[in-house]
């Protein structure tokens, strides 16, 4: 590794060694053979010791109420005023709760809250409260009953209110989701008729964005929910999301979903709003026709029709033409296009382009009116300063910055290898994944998320996961924590802790963290890294200033990843920039221009975190946190430097994380926690003795995978996504080496309670010439995913 040879002076040597310190050497052969596994279960209720991060939290008081000031989340302080000296910055590291998991029994609520606190969690996202109305009370699955919307399940309300109090005592905020999955019913709720089963995405249909009856009912729901949960000016309420994943902009951008937005009975309402918008903009429909050089429908005397995606074709303004060209053949574009003002000068838009721009801005304004209307209710009921957002940025993309103009923060979602159900969710015994790796091929997708940030507001990723049974899934935790810290984001919420409430589950299920112990073991460390500032934020902004016309052009593009293409052309911003500067956008009144600091010399940026696209390896080298993640490794070293080479195979996907327990720099720390993330699977039901469930190719092909069917479901293509315990983790045959000031170390494998097991033999855990040499080759019966490391000065030991 270039520049890794320590130079003169112990401090300089320590710094250089830290920057290059973490090495993983695979002693087993790199092959496609299945790696060795071992059974492991975390006892969450009795977890303590090194993996317990409860100390990060204190009970929430009135002074801990979260507000937005200076573009970040801050606690309001004892004076109750935002923007004063007693405010403090707070970052949110949270997790989602879904369906029944929101409603634990009264006696279980404190226990669940303590479990979450041990993971370093300081917020939970109350998700899918409204999705599955029912009469069940033990447990409830929704806060609603099947009665006319909104009819509240009194048992669910009581349990959730009690749970929120228990969470607050453990220093855990709540993120309240309003509309997630409730489907309005014409025969019961009084909305116009539509056939939900004919819609592509019935849970996401944006008819609720503009239908007056639907909006009025949502106002009643929001008001009643906040009152019933006693959240007025509550320090427990961190933020509110109006609508999980739905907008008119999003439906228009997905042509197959536009029909979801305008069922026949709803078309007149949206058509009327469109024509009223045109009159406000132009003064009359005739003036609009003149601007467009056309009068669709034949005459301005009648209502001008809505645009369907098929009506528009490919936008062809110069800026969007550049998007198309960049997307089609990015590698052949001349670098001189970047920032070339002459090439980016505006040209007069054609009538067709103006009509398209107007329609997209109308959709954004209609979305904005809906968000603003619900936000007013939230602020009236919960307090004027509670942070509110509309929907997540992928549902509307760049033009959401216009629809979210009056929102307090921006939200996004991110998934790697989301499972696919070929026959729909109704057949949960036929699913497949591609075992895709974030480090292997998906890092570029993080650029889309990072670019969607509004630089003037807090930024939150309220859902992310690389879900079970992806074998590289553990890598997402240290990578997302590092990226969020470097980009100076304000919140991360893992999806999820669980959607079926079961306090005893010892195996992974669906998207749950609980039972997915190969991820779980790195969660607390990742929380600590993000929340405490152990990883410093980047010092440069690499953002774009765009006007609403440019945002509309991006929204109209049919090209793949148009925002990335636009960023490359305008600001020379690519995937590598994720680790060079803080990314995002601002909405300006002038034409799209790069910000003055987009030309920051990459050589001036530190190399605390980096991604090697050739080696497909992520590396973190902060003084107080080291991480290495990838798909397989072979490495060499000498006495003064380290070299890590990644061999991309299926043999050993790895995620290695090393952090201090005493808040010291790693080279000087006397107590450290090492975790080895890995893929997790459950056991094949009925196997004696229990054995890990096997990966098999899915018959649909395309290099997709699934898990072998359960024996009690003959004829199925896939096993259940809710695994049978015990869970199995992959062994980690690695050798670690890092610089230390200690003379001696003792390394304790930890059990599922975080308790020390017998230490490793001295020949496998030693200090030589100022470096720790740690051999973690273990037989499955002695393997562990985490290790507590105690470093000592040998001379001091002898004096005792």
From TrEMBL:
Annotated signal peptide: 1-33
Protein name listed in UniProt: Cellulase (Glycosyl hydrolase family 5)
Record keyword Signal present: yes
InterPro entries noted in UniProt: GH (IPR017853)
Region of interest (Disordered), ranges: 589-609
Keyword terms of this UniProt record: Signal
TM ranges: none
Organism: Pigmentiphaga daeguensis
Coiled coil ranges: none
């Amino acid at each position: 590794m270039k520049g890794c040879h320590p130079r003169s002076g112990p401090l300089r040597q320590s710094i250089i060694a830290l920057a290059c310190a973490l090495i993983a050497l695979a002693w087993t052969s790199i092959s496609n053979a299945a790696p060795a596994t071992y059974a492991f279960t975390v006892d969450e209720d009795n977890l303590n010791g090194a993996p317990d991060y409860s100390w990060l939290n204190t009970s929430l008081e009135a002074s801990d109420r979260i507000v937005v000031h200076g573009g970040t989340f801050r606690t309001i302080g004892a004076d109750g005023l935002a923007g004063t000296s007693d405010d403090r910055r707070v970052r949110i590291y949270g997790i989602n709760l879904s369906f029944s998991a929101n409603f634990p029994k009264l006696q279980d609520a404190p226990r669940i809250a303590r479990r979450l606190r041990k993971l370093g969690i300081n917020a939970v996202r109350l998700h899918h409260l409204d999705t599955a109305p029912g009469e069940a009370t033990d447990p409830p699955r929704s806060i609603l009953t099947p009665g006319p919307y909104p009819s509240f399940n009194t048992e669910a309300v009581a349990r959730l209110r009690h749970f929120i109090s228990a969470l607050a005592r453990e220093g855990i905020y709540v993120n309240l989701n309003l509309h997630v999955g409730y489907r309005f019913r014409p025969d019961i709720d009084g909305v116009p008729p539509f056939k939900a089963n004919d819609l592509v995405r019935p849970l996401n249909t944006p008819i609720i964005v503009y239908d007056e009856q639907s909006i009025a009912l949502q106002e009643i729901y929001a008001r009643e929910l906040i009152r019933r949960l006693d959240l007025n000016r509550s320090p427990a309420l961190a933020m509110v999301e109006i609508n999980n994943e739905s907008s008119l902009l999003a439906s228009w951008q997905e042509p197959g979903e536009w029909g979801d937005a305008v069922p026949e009975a709803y078309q007149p309402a949206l058509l009327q709003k469109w024509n009223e918008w045109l009159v406000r903009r132009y003064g009359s429909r005739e003036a609009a026709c003149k601007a467009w050089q056309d009068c669709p429908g034949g005459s301005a005397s009648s209502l001008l029709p809505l645009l369907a995606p098929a009506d528009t074709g490919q936008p062809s303004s110069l800026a969007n033409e550049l998007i198309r060209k960049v997307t089609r053949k990015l590698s052949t574009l001349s670098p001189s296009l970047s920032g070339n003002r002459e090439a980016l000068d505006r040209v007069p838009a054609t009538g067709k382009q103006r009509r398209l721009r107007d329609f997209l801005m109308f959709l954004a304004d209609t979305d904005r009116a809906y968000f603003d209307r619900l936000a007013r209710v939230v602020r009236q009921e919960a307090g004027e300063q509670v942070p509110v957002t509309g929907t997540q940025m992928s549902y509307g993309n760049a033009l959401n910055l216009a629809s979210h103009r009056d929102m307090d923060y921006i939200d996004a979602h991110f998934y790697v290898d989301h499972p696919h159900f070929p026959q729909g969710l109704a057949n949960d015994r036929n699913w497949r994944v591609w075992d895709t790796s974030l480090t292997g091929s998906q890092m570029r997708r993080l650029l889309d998320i990072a670019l969607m940030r509004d630089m003037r507001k807090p930024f939150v990723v309220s859902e992310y996961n690389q879900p079970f049974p992806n074998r590289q899934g553990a890598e997402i935790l240290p990578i997302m924590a590092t990226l969020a810290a470097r980009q100076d984001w304000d919140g991360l919420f893992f999806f999820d802790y669980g959607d079926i409430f079961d306090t005893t589950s010892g195996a992974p299920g669906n998207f749950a963290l609980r039972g997915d112990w190969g991820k779980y073991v790195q969660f607390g460390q990742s929380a600590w890294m993000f929340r405490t500032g152990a990883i410093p934020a980047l010092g440069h902004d690499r953002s774009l200033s765009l006007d609403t016309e440019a945002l509309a052009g991006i929204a109209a593009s049919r090209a793949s990843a148009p925002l990335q293409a636009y960023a490359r052309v305008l600001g020379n911003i690519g995937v590598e920039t994720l680790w060079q500067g803080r990314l995002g956008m601002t909405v300006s009144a002038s034409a799209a221009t790069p910000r003055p600091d987009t030309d920051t010399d990459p050589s001036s940026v530190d190399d605390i975190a980096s991604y090697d696209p050739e080696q497909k390896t992520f590396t973190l080298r902060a003084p107080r946190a080291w991480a290495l993640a990838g798909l397989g490794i072979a490495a060499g070293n000498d006495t003064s430097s380290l070299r890590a080479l990644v061999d991309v195979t299926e043999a050993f996907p790895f995620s290695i994380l090393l952090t201090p327990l005493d808040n010291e720099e790693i080279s000087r720390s006397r107590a450290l926690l090492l975790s080895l993330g890995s893929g997790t699977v459950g056991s094949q039901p009925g196997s004696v003795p229990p054995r890990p469930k096997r990966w098999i190719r899915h018959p649909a092909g395309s290099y997709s995978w699934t898990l072998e069917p359960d024996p009690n479901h003959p004829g199925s293509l896939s096993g259940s996504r809710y695994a049978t315990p015990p869970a199995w983790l992959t062994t980690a045959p690695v050798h670690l080496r890092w610089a230390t000031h200690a003379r001696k170390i003792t390394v304790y494998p930890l059990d599922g309670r975080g308790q020390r097991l017998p230490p490793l033999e001295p020949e496998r855990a030693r200090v030589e010439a100022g470096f720790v040499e740690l051999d973690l080759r273990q037989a499955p019966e002695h393997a562990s995913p985490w290790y507590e490391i105690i470093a000592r000065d040998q001379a001091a030991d002898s004096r005792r």
